[in-house]
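Quick start: read one record
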Amino acid sequence: MGTTSGDAGAAKQAWPALMVAGTIAVIAGILAIALPAAASVSITILIGILLIVVAVVWLIGTLRSDAGAAWKIIGVVLALLLLVAGIWALARPFQATVTFTAILVIYFIVSGVIRLAGAIADRRREGAFLWGLGGALSIVLGILIGTELPDSANWAIGLLVGIQFLFDGFALLAIGFSARKVAKAA
């Protein structure tokens, strides 16, 4: 099965952007892994900014909606909570990083238990072993990070995001190389 001219055109347009995005992601991943404390605080600051933006959008949407008074009050309260959380994250990024790391620990443990239980319950399904193994690793990772709190807040978020960026960057580069091949073959 050959490539169509549409596939080649799309590949010709896409591969440079994929290569740039992949390269940036790999560099960001390497920096985050090399400087996990700085990356953790930077991510916390970004989360604070995002919380503020979401709070403002939520508040505007709530006030413009034609929902009843009770729903508007709930919407305003939730928007204000998001705003306070965002301002707190920006004003105290080191403390916020500890809090976000604690939330990450809870997420890893709970999601790991759910995945492990699902894999055990459906152990005959193909891939159940890997699903369960991933769940067990998530539990172990959550426990390891949790037992080291608050010290683990200095590295956990930055390191994990750095690893994710690194893998995503290599994946984007691989897709970019593949798209370049398709574009050259056409």
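The chain has six helices and no strands.
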